[in-house]
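User
Here is a favour to ask of a fellow structure person. I am asking you to supply a protein in sequence and structure-token form. Please set it down just below, with no commentary around it:

Assistant
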Amino acid sequence: MNALATTGSPRPAMSGMQTACRFRQLVRLLAPCLLIGLMVLGPLAASAIERDYFFDRLDNERGLLQNSIQALAQTRDGTMWIGTQAGLHQFDGYRFKVYEHDPDDP
């Protein structure tokens, strides 16, 4: 018995015209979906970029020992570390914790 008779004939290759036709059908199907998706998700992405920033002055009236800041760092949890000649200050967004410099303990 012939091998093609038992397994069926191989699928014929698509011509270039058939491939182009299927591609056009796919584009016609997906283009409106893409357009609707952009119309729905576009404003959400634009509003995600918009941010309101608030800054309050941090000085000796609010708890710093000295207004001249030498170093500034922020940890992942949002804690601000402020270095001055008078010592190290930890600011959690509400209050300062001061680690004063002791010249006798280098």
The longest strand covers residues 69-74. The mean pLDDT is 78.
